[in-house]
Specification:
This is YfhL family 4Fe-4S dicluster ferredoxin. GO terms for molecular function: 4 iron, 4 sulfur cluster binding; metal ion binding. Keywords: 4Fe-4S, Electron transport, Iron, Iron-sulfur, Metal-binding, Repeat, Transport. It contains three helices and two strands, in the order αββαα. The protein is α+β, with helices and mostly antiparallel strands and about 80 residues long. Strands 1-2 form a two-stranded antiparallel sheet. The protein has a single domain, classed as Alpha-Beta Plaits (2-Layer Sandwich), CATH 3.30.70. Helix content is about 25%, strand content about 5%.
Amino acid sequence: MALLITDECINCDVCEPACPNDAISEGDDIYVIDPDLCTECIGHFDEPQCVVICPVDCIPHDPNHVETESDLMSKYKRITGQ
């Protein structure tokens, strides 16, 4: 499943450059994750880099975008053209 950033986000800007798919951007109040681009770093890393680097632990799985590891790998291949 894709990830999401909760309202506990402190806008520290460490997650955006860590995302290999450019799925994270500045929203109106907090950073946001585009579920169409989020692969939880599958295909790039062993674990989601935004979750690893987030100092306030505000990036859980998005229950509205449930995806299997296979779904995420297919999305990775579509995004990267591999």
